[in-house]
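User
Please review the sequence:
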Amino acid sequence: MQQVTQQRELPERISWARAMVFAIGFFLLAAILVGQIPGYVYNAMTASSLVEFERGSLSLGLICLACFAVVMVIELLFDPKPLLPPALLAGVGGIVTVVGLAVTILVSVTGYRDFPHADTKILPLLGGYFLWFQPDAIDLVAIGLIILFVGVATVFYSVLAMGELRNPDRRDLGTTPAIRWMIIISSLLLIVFLYCYNYDVAGALFQNIVLGIAVFLALGAFGLRLHYLMRPVRKRVMPGLYAIGALGLAQTGAVFVLLWIIAYPLLALIHPLPVLGPYLTNCLRATAVPNSCTFSQDAGYIVDAIVTSSFFGAMLAAVWAWKSNRNLVVVGSVVITAVIALTALVMHTAPTALPTAMMLCAGILIVATVWTITARREFAVVGENNLGCLGQWLVMGTCLFVYLASFAFFSMANFAAEETPPNIPNTIPGTPATAKDAFVMLALFAVLGAIQFFFLTRNRYRV
């Protein structure tokens, strides 16, 4: 009995390779949630025009609500048995998919990508063009992509539910050949795009098609791997997944949609106030309120602090809940990572920004899928080798190479000037300059990091 008790009290073991994948995933979450998103909100609020803030708020809010809808579809289909016939949901998802695809193609072909236009006059209020909204405040391409995503996800999980009705197997199948090939093909297509984009050896249409297939395959691999990850532990995971959707995604989406609705009326309300007006708003012309107004830097600091504190508190809560609710933390983390990937896509639908937005979306989805693969047996005893001097270098060197390669990868994004400038210089294709520092750096450190990670995995060092 004493021997059994001592064996149970032994610390849980995890390989350094698995620990590194977990660390990379949480570092990505922390960097984007605590750093990038609050910084984007601040820059959009304090820009010369609130159009970018309105577009971003609507896109971010709608993608959060869309992901909440997908979570509800998963709950209806797998908690623990279908509450609605999967064939019915598949039919509804098919209709939604057709609508989303039609909207996306229609607004792209006609060029009517934004609403309202400068010549639109529909119930104008407060100097607006549609109610109080300024030109280009609504991104129709993003709305079409969001509708398309909800439809495809509904059909995807409905087909999986119909398969489970025929086969009672509830095991975690791990990395099946379908998942493996989708990850491999998506990664190869991403490499093809990076070369074509940086050296301008193919047209924009070819690059967009390659990236579209890469995003679709990466999203399919992630969805299927998440399904297998949750399948053996649904009774413990489904309540937490619902909490993530209802208390996290739905509430966040509602807040950002509300910000999109009240931004201009709030400026008109705050500006005349004696103290708060000059402190929280900046207006170029006193005769054009709120048309010429934006929020001041002080208002941006306040909102930035609220957003940063909220996400930082969520990260601390995940650390606190890791020991007692590991399934909740793992599933919640990978779901939020996928939401971030989709957000990068729907918030940058301009023709110049869309290719690199799809690049980031595919890359983050691949990382999330690898994370779910690692999370299958994260605390299995995989080896008895001590780390040693060589192992310490492999751990430190791999982390360093991954860190530098990630900086280079994110520096290739071609977004609006209002956002954070790239860390590594990389010339936009088509311009006279030919600096390719970010691409060369990514290729070099990705190869070096992969080599070191291979030997780290092969030697099976334990933590």
Remarks:
- Residues 234-270 form the longest helix (37 residues).
